[in-house]
Amino acid sequence: MVAPYDDAPAITQAGYAHPEVLVSTDWVEEHKNDPGVRIVESDEDVLLYDLGHVPGAVKIDWHTDLNDPVIRDYIGREGFEELMRAKGIANDTTVVFYGDKHNWWACYAFWVFKLFGHPDVRIMNGGRQKWIDEGRELSREVPEYPATNYQASERKDAPIRAFRDDVLAHIGSGRPLVDVRSPAEYTGELLHMADYPQEGALRGGHIPGAANIPWARAVREDGTFKSAGELRAIYEQENGLHPGEEIVAYCRIGERSSHTWFVLTYLLGYPNVRNYDGSWTEWGNLVRVPIEK
Q1: Is 164-284 assigned to CATH 3.40.250.10?
Q2: Cα atoms in the Cβ-side hemisphere of radius 13 Å centred on 27
Q3: What's 133-155 look like in SS3?
Q4: Phi then psi for 216, rounded to 5 degrees?
Q5: How far apart are CA 51 and CA 199, in angstroms?
Q6: Where do the structural domains in the chain lie, given as residue ranges?
Q7: Which of 84, 121, 230, 247 makes a 20 to 30 Å CA pair with 259?
């Protein structure tokens, strides 16, 4: 049974193509104990959940839960089934993600869930910090839910995931790329965001032809998404993107670009956006691929 959609004016009147994928903190407060809803926290700082989380929320660790432990790839069908069953998520469960960093990793986890075709995945607008700023309850209790018999499809990468050969072909055809990193990373001045270790790639710069549209431009100071009109002004009027184009977004390891993928795909309704999760830690280490600064 599909959980009710959020009818808050801030969501329904923002002009989004798919407002059903967003819920407010009020909605989460009201529905967090619904048996058909599972609230999931996914953070960059994996210790935050233990310090306090939305009551009833489970934790999914982007690194240990979603990634293959040996090769650089995501878990397969069997691993995803095991994870879902352990978290008490059934095929018809409404999964609501939230997290730190204005929902970077929440959008990343959302994207991975869509690789496996989970039908009802949503994002709590504003993320963890908005919940805290509103003075809402935090819990340290780790809930336990009955195991389910989740049945996953084989992971389908092609519709929403790009690999390096896809990006090379994308460059050759002159189709648009969006580099969502900071301007200093885009120009090659930095290999990572400021205040992070400057490591992970041997070369700095950006993929030729990519437009630099930092992911954070899509959100307000409180972490909520800007309206569709404001987003179109950024992506279309300022940077010339068009819904009919095939677009590839990238960052450093795919988490920030999954945020932009979410914005373009669900808030603006672009049908052909892929996330290049290899991103700069792959491209900046490849031999003889083109780089611009």
Answers
A1: yes
A2: 27
A3: HCCCCCECCCCCCCCCCCCCCCC
A4: -70, -15
A5: 29
A6: 9-134, 164-284
A7: 84
35: left (phi over 0), alpha (psi -120 to 50) or beta: alpha
Active-site choice (251, 263, 267, 273): 251
Instruction: Write down the CATH number for the domain with range 9-134.
Output: 3.40.250.10
- Is 107 catalytic? The answer is no
Q: Could you tell me whether strands 22-23 and 121-124 are parallel, antiparallel, or unpaired per DSSP bridges?
A: parallel
- Taking the C-alpha atoms of residue 143 and residue 139, their distance in angstroms, rounded to an integer, is 10
Tell how far CA 167 is from the center of its chain: 20
Identity at 42, one-letter amino acid code: S
Return per-residue pLDDT of the chain as tens, 293 residues.
689 999 999 999 999 999 999 999 999 999 999 999 999 999 999 899 999 999 999 999 998 999 999 999 999 999 999 999 999 999 999 999 999 999 999 999 999 999 999 999 999 999 999 999 999 999 999 999 999 999 999 999 999 999 999 999 999 999 999 999 999 999 999 877 777 777 778 899 999 999 999 999 999 999 999 999 999 999 999 999 999 999 999 999 999 999 999 999 999 999 999 999 999 999 999 999 999 99
- How many helices (H) and strands (E) in the chain? 11, 9
